[in-house]
Amino acid sequence: MNTPNTPAVEEKKPGIVRRLYDWMLSWANSPWASLAMFLFAMAESIFFPIPPDVLLIALCVGLPKKSFRYALICTLGSVFGAMIGFGLGAFAWELVDSWFIPTIFSQEAFDSVADLYAKWNFWLVFTAGFTPLPYKLITISAGVCLGIGEFGIFVLASLISRGLRFFLVASLIWKFGAPIKKFIDKYFNLCAIAFTVLLIGGFLLVTQVL
Fold first, then answer.
1. 125 with 134: CB under 8 angstroms?
2. C-alpha closest to that of 156 among 133, 123, 184
3. Which of 96, 17, 69 is nearest to 174 (CA)?
4. DSSP 145
5. pTM
């Protein structure tokens, strides 16, 4: 009980990102969980701040036998969202740029990514799709910076990188069960970055040798 001279301690409310995270996880127990994951994956490729891995991991832990099905749904949703993001950048950027900048990402980040497209193209999309880099920044800036003739390469890079990421997560849970969740939460992104660096580094080395 609070005395007259003792101020009450106000309970700190969780921030908006945490509330979004909890709301996203709450769909794991819904009969619409698969559809929700598809929509979250799609939205994350355009504007949503929380990666779909959160719900994917929860669903795979709950039903490991369906892990690969969930990974496929997550991949398709993410790539579909990437295509929408590309379309926004290619055909409607002048209408939406004031909302995306600085609400979703900064002008500096957008300009930096734009400068990288001329040299890296496929690898830039692949790196963002597989690592924890903000994928939404890549999908929309690709539409602005690349011609429509590069759309096929963009979709291919998105499909490979997103599929590789989500199926790897699903495979780990399918193989090792719930105990692997702590490893994924703590080390998966670091492993993804290391793998991408080695992959691109190896590719560059081969091209230099040949």
1. no
2. 123
3. 69
4. H
5. 0.85
Cis peptide preceding 49, ω within 30 of 0: no
Q: Is the dihedral of CA 180, 183, 184, 185 positive or negative?
A: positive
Answer whether 194's CB lies under 8 Å from 166's CB: no
Tokens of 99: 């909302």
| CB-based contact 52:135 (threshold 8 Å) | no
Tens of pLDDT, residues 101-133: 888 888 888 888 888 887 788 889 999 999 988
CA distances from 172 to 79, 100, 186 (A): 22, 35, 14
Nearest to 47 by CA among 129, 137, 133, 143: 137
For residue 110, give every residue at least 6 positions away whose Cβ sits within 8 Å of its Cβ, in sequence order, or none: 101, 137, 141
Q: How far from the centroid of its chain's Cα atoms is residue 177's Cα?
A: 23
**Would you state the torsion angle of the CA atoms of residues 130, 136, 138, 140, taken in this order, to the nearest 10 degrees?**
150
How many whole angstroms separate alpha carbon 56 and alpha carbon 52? 6
Residue in 152, 37, 133 with CA at minimum distance from that of residue 83: 152
Give residues with Cβ within 8 angstroms of 34, minimum separation 6: 59, 69, 70, 73
